[in-house]
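note to self: the first set is below, dont mix up w the second
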Amino acid sequence: MKTDRSEGTELFNKAGIFYSRRVGGTPGGYYDALQLAADSNYTLLKNPSITQLYNGTKFSGRTKNGLGIGVFNAVTAPMYAELGKPNGETFKIETEPLTNYNIFVLDQSLKNRSSITFTNTNTIRNGSGRDGNVSALGVSLYDKTNTYNFQAKTNFSYVTGDDPHNGYRAYTEFDKVSGKWQWGVYNNIKSKLYDPNDLGILFRTNEMNSGAYISYNQFTPNKIFNLRNYNINVQYSNRVVPFSYANLKINGNFLHVFKNFWDASLILFSQPTWENDYFDLRTSGKFIKKSPFTFLGIEGSTDSRKKLFGRYNLGWANLSPIPNDAYTRFGLGARYRFSPKFSLDIGGDRTLDKGNIGFAFFEPATNEPIAGYRTITTFNTTVNAIYNFKARMNLNLSLRHYWSKVDYKEFYHVKDDGFYAPHEYVDGKNENFNAFNLDMFFTWDFRLGSRLIIAWKNALGPDAVVDGISNSKYSNNFSEVFNVPHSNEISVKFVYYIDAQQFKKKKA
């Protein structure tokens, strides 16, 4: 079997039902343990936020006849939270059972870049807990000239346990994929009970998205531009059961790469009609109206070949029926290459949404979802550094701090038609959220296709809280992040490339 080093990632993600962070993530009962401690007189002594991995094995390759084969298996350990009683006794509760994750992929290459792919993901948990199985079959067909492409994908999910259910996803697309003018149409349907979330990730179901796009492409340089791409996409969405309108969205991106290799893109994002949001209120049968808006922005960068490379983005939206609800975005970033061995990249992005409306809380007495009118401020700061010891040995550091502050101005009941009725103001609902990650990777490619990776990951604990009243500014939040609990993880990954051809007997 001839193995392509890039084949593994492409194979396992081709069906779109594998999200690697599912394996070894936060135990499913982690927050239940926190809640139990908060609602009782128990003391939480231990509650691991990361699931221990017993093993992870991946095999992938492609035969000389074009058949790609991928097999993945991982087993995670059972996890427990430990709590203490007032009398000094301790007890444990299981937050995550022993779990076996499996993926199997067959991908047959056909003529003219065409292919047919079957993928199955299977998650088995010890005991009577939830198990999940998802199968996906997809086909991608090109004509002889590689001008047109047709894609069709169908997925089926089956979940057992306390809440057994099954569902499906169906996707079709037809595109013109070559030439200056390109276009395409697509349709994506997800049934109400489609659920790939044991090994995949999906936030919304029970919806149908239909869309079309057209683009103009300049591939050869002229007197002003090295490259241009103008793209417009229109998407119309519905709820599937019962069938009803959701929203209409228009996206535009107009990219220009100039002769000096600087680039600039004009961005358009518009929702020209009122949206019926069936998900935000977290209550079946309820929806909330979201106002029309139009966002205009620009983003770009300098010549990335230079030692100093800069980038920027800015945008504004205020074209909606709700007064004083301006949305602004601004970001800057720079990378400097000190030497062939060392480079440093620093970036920051700020958004301010003065007129955001959405779910705030459930009314305690009636469990009615209450909406809030709020100002949301977010900052996202990143630092990336890489040091190359030699050609195939490097150290990579990545730091990210994300801060979001939510200040509520008003609260509303949501009527049956999705619009708002006044609700008395409720104190204590403002939010202050911080996320912090520091990842460091030592990578050594010691032979063709083989590598050693040693990783250290430091993150803000999922239950860590930074007081938003005394730390109302970004700088205060960033400083306070280092005074609350963090989690640390060290992992080692060893990959050794074996070409099966070398084991075959050579012909005389």
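second set (the one i keep forgetting abt)
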Amino acid sequence: MGRGAVIRITDHLFRFDNGDGCATYLIRDRARAIVIDPGRCEWIDQLPRLGIETLEAIYLTHHHHEQLQGLYDLKRLPCTVHAPADDRRFIEPGPERFGDSRDLLLGDGCPASYAPPRRGIRSVAFDVVPNSDHYRLGRRIRFLHTPGHGSAAVSILFDIDGMQVVFSGDAVHHGGTVWEPFHLETDHWTGAGALAAWEGIERLRGVRIDLLCPSHGPVVRRAIGPTLRRLSRRLLRFYHAKGQISPRVADRYVPTEALGCGAVRISPHLFQFGSNGYLVVADSGRALVVDPCGADMAALSALRAELGNPEVARCTATHYHLDHCDAADRLREDFGAEVVLHERVSWPLWPPERHRILRAPWLPPSPVRADIELRGDGTFTWEGIDFEYFAAPGQTWWHAALIARIDGRRVLFSGDTIQPSSRWNGTGGFCAYNRSRLREGFVPTCKRLLRCKPDVVAAGHGTVFFFDRRKFVLIARWARTAERAVKALCPSRRPGEYYRWPATP
């Protein structure tokens, strides 16, 4: 079906193809009609050919750009546009639009919307409420809450030509899949969005559906029940993949000594301070900071004072998130510290042009330049301490790891990719927006660590525990299972469809 084509589905139901946008559906009753998800609005020119004189209403299943992009430039809306009540914040014009990723961010690190309207639209009625009814063309229109692509998304139930027809938006795609499944990720580490989508599909499964009309993909005419059942199972698998990544492995925390300043001594030359930072103090009295966070600088000052004010000569970061690197420039300015970053960590932070346009969670407000950039895998010695470094993608693609021999133990600084099993399901999370990778990320990282065999894991956010080989075997196994769950949701059956937004360079 080519762009702009009109397909008659039943005597009174038509579908318009919007090319790279969504499908638009039109229900006709003599010379009157209503439209669902207007897309590019190219169908307006074809109304006379279909004998339509009056457009009674336009309904939106959800707020995404491709559902309504044709409305931006209409000088006058041809009728009232009805939208989900809770989508007002995205559709209604206001002082804040969504061109900058930082405006999109919620506190939990995922956008409020992955595809918000690029401009506001006036004169929209936000009166589509789940489980409520409208009456058009002499028929009842019922709205079913089917979140997933958007928390307010609905499916629209309409009686047409003796059939119960459901216009499902992006809740379901042909074959029991989901169009662009990264929309299900409403935060960066739990399966809350997938579970909400599952509840919506379960609602649809309880309804008699003779024809299923999604926004993307073909109309589903046969095996509608099995299609929904298959999607329900896949959503639950994806939900479980967001859960524990190293089940029932004991944390086995390293004993530490509490200091008067509030920091802890892990070993004679290794300390943890604030919420996220580590301080390595060499015999020379010079110090290296791992994951310098601005919020932790007061805690670092107090720790240094208790230790006799060692000079901070170097700092590094395990990944680009602001709570792991945003104080690097301050340490350089205050102490002349060298900023040493792995190339994988440095990529989102420099040059300023890239940092400015990149859409990613938790970018520091200012770009961070490395004085020394570590490339690939390698080693270096600093003040008599041997370090090994390598890329360690997982929670984010832009992640690295360091292993240092400190006080006779090999200490892994793992950042947020690896956490104790009792914290955050064993990891700082995975989601497409954070450029997480499963087979390409967690698996090779775990294989590398199984070869390296560190003694201690100094994880991000201040937890230090003994290395347990079983944990990393389980994580690699989980990552393969999780990628299969992701793949099953993709209409193409290729996980790249999940990863493609935003594309990883």
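remember for set 2: The two ends are 33 Å apart (CA to CA).
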